[in-house]
């Protein structure tokens, strides 16, 4: 079996040089993909450009750009440009994001997110294919095409968790990037989306699934658990209800309640997962010594196409490097 591995970061990671060093190391170690997120900190697109200029082989993904923060035309221009800069190594990741980010940062009402996602993905693909923009809000205007070489081959990867947004991923995406997905349910979840895809259009290529655990390798296994638990608990308690609802619906409702109760004032450094909720942490993370991470990450290989580890924000470089090395495909 070919082992396919990727590295991903959280939007809370804003140390630019650390991100660049991690990408270069990932390429050296044979990772297939490196995913650069975007939230309310770094603009990921110039960062992807910088990584592309420092690397030669690794594929780069925006994972993910919010559909509320840029117009479809801007997203298409960005994707086509990064496709050129990277020599064809770029995948455009799109997602409906969260109500907190859409409204609290982009000042945009979070209304009908699945419909908005479908509309944006469709418009971006139209423009990348060299077709004129599909005008919905200014239909009287003269419709323009992308004024550069068409790039229909740019993959569109969809970050989605809810039933309506995952349907968009299945029907319109080239890849699916589910965050905080329980390991044991991923294969059946992906199979269900494959059936949706087949029913929608039997001629579509197989949907690539890229997901993986929060990963931390440290000499002190207890410290590794604390860091992984803090990252998981922060997502479940402080990022709106999207992740908590998703993990609960994956069969861990009681554990999610316990984590929320244990973190009345969420803190990204001090968030915790109580022992009673350990089953959900073991579904969402791999942690411990390098040997433990190297062994445990293999349990994900049969669940998805690309096992993409998620590095918690603020990791000291020695721990980040050890984690990337421990989970490497070779």
Automatic annotation (TrEMBL):
<protein>
    <submittedName>
        <fullName>LLM class flavin-dependent oxidoreductase</fullName>
    </submittedName>
</protein>
<dbReference type="InterPro" id="IPR011251">
    <property type="entry name" value="Luciferase-like_dom"/>
</dbReference>
<dbReference type="Pfam" id="PF00296">
    <property type="entry name" value="Bac_luciferase"/>
</dbReference>
<keyword id="KW-0560">Oxidoreductase</keyword>
<dbReference type="InterPro" id="IPR050564">
    <property type="entry name" value="F420-G6PD/mer"/>
</dbReference>
<dbReference type="InterPro" id="IPR036661">
    <property type="entry name" value="Luciferase-like_sf"/>
</dbReference>
<feature type="domain" description="Luciferase-like">
    <location>
        <begin position="6"/>
        <end position="302"/>
    </location>
</feature>
């Amino acid at each position: 079996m070919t082992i396919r591995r990727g590295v991903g970061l959280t939007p809370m990671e804003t140390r630019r040089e650390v991100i660049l060093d991690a990408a270069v190391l990932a390429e050296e170690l044979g990772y297939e993909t490196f995913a650069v997120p975007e939230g309310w900190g770094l603009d990921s697109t110039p960062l992807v450009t910088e990584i592309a200029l420092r690397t030669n082989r690794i594929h780069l993904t925006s994972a993910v750009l919010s559909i509320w923060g840029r117009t479809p035309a801007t997203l298409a221009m960005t994707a086509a440009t990064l496709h050129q800069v990277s020599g064809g190594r770029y995948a455009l990741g799109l997602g409906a994001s969260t109500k907190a980010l859409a409204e609290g940062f982009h000042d945009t009402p979070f209304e009908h997110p699945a419909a908005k996602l479908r509309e944006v993905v469709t418009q971006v693909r139209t423009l990348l294919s060299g077709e004129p923009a599909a005008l919905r809000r200014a239909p009287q205007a003269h419709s323009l095409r992308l004024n550069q070489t068409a790039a229909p081959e740019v993959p569109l990867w969809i970050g989605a968790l809810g039933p309506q947004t995952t349907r968009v991923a299945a029907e319109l995406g080239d890849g699916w990037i589910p965050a905080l997905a329980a390991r044991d349910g991923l294969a059946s979840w992906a199979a269900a989306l494959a059936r949706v895809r087949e029913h929608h259009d039997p001629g579509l290529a197989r949907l690539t699934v890229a997901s993986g655990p929060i990963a931390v390798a440290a000499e002190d296994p207890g410290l590794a658990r604390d860091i992984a638990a803090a990252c998981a608990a922060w997502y479940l308690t402080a990022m709106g209800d999207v992740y908590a609802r998703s993990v609960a619906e994956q069969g861990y409702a009681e554990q999610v309640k316990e984590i929320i109760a244990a973190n009345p004032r969420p803190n990204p450094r001090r968030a915790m997962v109580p022992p009673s909720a350990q089953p959900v942490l073991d579904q969402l993370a791999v942690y411990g010594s390098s040997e433990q991470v190297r062994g445990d990450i293999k349990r994900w290989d049969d669940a998805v196409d690309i096992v993409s580890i998620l590095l918690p924000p603020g990791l000291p470089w020695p721990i980040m490097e050890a984690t990337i090395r421990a989970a490497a495909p070779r």
